[in-house]
Design goal:
alpha/beta; Rossmann fold; eight-stranded mixed beta sheet; 11 helices; 8 strands; about 45% helix
Amino acid sequence: MTKAHVRGLEMAYDDAGAGVPVVLLHGFPFNRSLWREQVAVLSQNHRVITPDLRGFGETTATDEPATMETMAEDVAALLDELKLERVVLGGLSMGGYVALAFYRLFPQRVRALMLADTRPQADTEEARRNRETLATRALAEGMQPIADAMLPKLLTPATQTERPEIVARVREMIMSTSPVGAAAALRGMALRRDQTDLLPEIDVPTLIIVGSEDAITPPQDAELMHRAIRGSLFKVIAGAGHCSNLERPDEFNRALTNQ
């Protein structure tokens, strides 16, 4: 693990392998360890950079809403620090929101996109209210309410009953997240803009991945992106939920490496 001083933050990241740089952005409320299985495969032929986004893992948390644009600018500053002009950019869930915000801000810096278990639409009013409730509870009670509320939605019922090691890994990531960082990200996600209008403008190779049982950003959201992004590739991972890269890492990695 390395830390860079960017935009007033200490930003933690891992940097493995050599070759075309690939940057992978984790979802909420996780950290860079989400990508362990992907780094192991991709770093054989690429340079793979996995940062902890603002407020997560070992990166500094801030009180104000961590908007997707703010996080995208953090990532751009990290790339400047690493002297990387253009990268393959991937994100899962909230990481996908950040990847889309990054593309809108810095399209010239993106060689290709990977959008996993994410959506382009903004939150509904109900979703915004729910995020504020969770943010308030996180600050008052810690991460246990977040873990209890999210775990049933993040993983398939089969994973929850038959794969305790995956459940424990996801719970550990959630419980190790700073409540301040979680609340800031929840409020930032509630503020995010609708990116649907951006999709037809994306003109880099794009891979869209979704778990067939994703209850948070279901396959129809991924299909919407696939239809709107010209030439995009679309992969549904059977038997996976919202954390498709954890539940079915081999299938996910085959999609990433086009095998």
